[in-house]
Amino acid sequence: xxxxxxxxxxxxxxxxxxxxxxxxxxxxxxxxxxxxxxxxxxxxxxxxxxxxxxxxxxxxxxxxxxxxxxxxxxxxxxxxxxxxxxxxxxxxxxxxxxxxxxxxxxxxxxxxxxxxxx
Length: 118
Prior knowledge:
Layout (H helix, E strand, L loop, with lengths): L9 E3 L2 E3 L2 H9 L4 H8 L4 E2 H7 L5 H13 L3 E6 L6 E6 L1 H4 L2 H16 L3
Antiparallel strand pairs: 1-2, 3-5, 4-5
Protein backbone atom coordinates (compact mmCIF):
# COMPACT_ATOMS: atom_id res chain seq x y z
CA UNK A 1 0.00 0.00 0.00
CA UNK A 2 1.28 3.46 -0.87
CA UNK A 3 1.69 5.73 2.13
CA UNK A 4 0.02 9.13 1.61
CA UNK A 5 2.47 11.97 1.12
CA UNK A 6 1.95 15.31 2.86
CA UNK A 7 2.54 17.44 -0.23
CA UNK A 8 1.74 15.35 -3.28
CA UNK A 9 0.58 17.95 -5.80
CA UNK A 10 0.90 16.89 -9.43
CA UNK A 11 0.51 18.66 -12.76
CA UNK A 12 -0.72 17.04 -15.94
CA UNK A 13 -1.37 18.73 -19.27
CA UNK A 14 -1.20 22.17 -17.66
CA UNK A 15 -3.65 21.37 -14.89
CA UNK A 16 -2.70 21.17 -11.20
CA UNK A 17 -4.09 18.54 -8.85
CA UNK A 18 -3.79 18.25 -5.05
CA UNK A 19 -2.80 14.57 -5.34
CA UNK A 20 -2.38 11.83 -7.97
CA UNK A 21 -5.77 10.28 -7.17
CA UNK A 22 -7.58 13.53 -7.96
CA UNK A 23 -5.80 13.62 -11.34
CA UNK A 24 -6.89 10.06 -12.16
CA UNK A 25 -10.47 10.72 -11.07
CA UNK A 26 -10.59 13.86 -13.19
CA UNK A 27 -9.43 11.89 -16.23
CA UNK A 28 -11.56 8.75 -15.86
CA UNK A 29 -14.15 9.77 -13.30
CA UNK A 30 -17.85 9.67 -13.91
CA UNK A 31 -20.20 6.85 -14.70
CA UNK A 32 -19.10 5.91 -18.21
CA UNK A 33 -15.42 6.57 -18.95
CA UNK A 34 -14.15 3.52 -17.10
CA UNK A 35 -16.81 1.36 -18.75
CA UNK A 36 -15.83 2.61 -22.22
CA UNK A 37 -12.15 1.92 -21.51
CA UNK A 38 -13.11 -1.53 -20.21
CA UNK A 39 -14.95 -2.42 -23.42
CA UNK A 40 -12.14 -1.09 -25.63
CA UNK A 41 -9.58 -3.36 -23.91
CA UNK A 42 -10.45 -6.17 -26.29
CA UNK A 43 -10.02 -4.14 -29.45
CA UNK A 44 -11.46 -1.35 -31.56
CA UNK A 45 -15.19 -0.72 -31.53
CA UNK A 46 -17.58 1.40 -33.54
CA UNK A 47 -19.96 3.86 -31.88
CA UNK A 48 -22.93 1.53 -32.39
CA UNK A 49 -21.08 -1.42 -30.85
CA UNK A 50 -20.28 0.61 -27.75
CA UNK A 51 -23.88 1.80 -27.56
CA UNK A 52 -25.10 -1.82 -27.69
CA UNK A 53 -22.75 -2.79 -24.88
CA UNK A 54 -24.08 0.09 -22.76
CA UNK A 55 -27.81 0.25 -23.52
CA UNK A 56 -28.62 2.77 -20.78
CA UNK A 57 -26.19 5.45 -21.99
CA UNK A 58 -27.63 8.13 -24.26
CA UNK A 59 -26.00 8.75 -27.63
CA UNK A 60 -25.18 12.31 -26.60
CA UNK A 61 -23.47 11.17 -23.39
CA UNK A 62 -21.54 8.44 -25.21
CA UNK A 63 -20.40 10.96 -27.81
CA UNK A 64 -19.29 13.42 -25.11
CA UNK A 65 -17.42 10.77 -23.12
CA UNK A 66 -15.64 9.51 -26.26
CA UNK A 67 -14.58 13.06 -27.13
CA UNK A 68 -13.21 13.61 -23.62
CA UNK A 69 -11.32 10.32 -23.63
CA UNK A 70 -9.88 11.21 -27.03
CA UNK A 71 -8.89 14.69 -25.83
CA UNK A 72 -7.16 13.20 -22.79
CA UNK A 73 -5.25 10.74 -24.97
CA UNK A 74 -6.86 7.49 -23.81
CA UNK A 75 -8.47 6.61 -27.14
CA UNK A 76 -8.07 7.40 -30.81
CA UNK A 77 -10.83 8.00 -33.32
CA UNK A 78 -10.24 6.84 -36.89
CA UNK A 79 -12.58 7.73 -39.75
CA UNK A 80 -12.64 5.44 -42.78
CA UNK A 81 -14.11 6.83 -45.98
CA UNK A 82 -14.87 10.35 -47.07
CA UNK A 83 -18.46 9.97 -48.21
CA UNK A 84 -21.40 9.08 -45.97
CA UNK A 85 -21.82 6.64 -44.46
CA UNK A 86 -18.29 6.78 -43.05
CA UNK A 87 -16.94 4.18 -40.65
CA UNK A 88 -15.65 5.58 -37.35
CA UNK A 89 -13.63 3.32 -35.06
CA UNK A 90 -12.50 3.98 -31.49
CA UNK A 91 -9.55 2.19 -29.92
CA UNK A 92 -7.16 2.51 -27.02
CA UNK A 93 -3.95 4.45 -27.54
CA UNK A 94 -0.68 3.38 -25.91
CA UNK A 95 -1.59 5.76 -23.08
CA UNK A 96 -5.01 4.10 -22.80
CA UNK A 97 -3.43 0.64 -22.82
CA UNK A 98 -1.11 1.72 -20.00
CA UNK A 99 -4.26 2.15 -17.88
CA UNK A 100 -5.26 -1.52 -18.27
CA UNK A 101 -3.56 -2.67 -15.02
CA UNK A 102 -5.65 -0.08 -13.16
CA UNK A 103 -8.84 -1.37 -14.79
CA UNK A 104 -7.80 -4.93 -13.92
CA UNK A 105 -7.25 -3.90 -10.28
CA UNK A 106 -10.62 -2.13 -10.14
CA UNK A 107 -12.32 -5.17 -11.66
CA UNK A 108 -10.65 -7.53 -9.17
CA UNK A 109 -11.61 -5.27 -6.28
CA UNK A 110 -15.21 -5.16 -7.54
CA UNK A 111 -15.38 -8.96 -7.73
CA UNK A 112 -13.98 -9.15 -4.20
CA UNK A 113 -16.58 -6.73 -2.86
CA UNK A 114 -19.48 -8.37 -4.71
CA UNK A 115 -18.40 -11.77 -3.42
CA UNK A 116 -18.66 -10.63 0.19
CA UNK A 117 -21.88 -10.99 2.12
CA UNK A 118 -23.02 -7.87 4.00
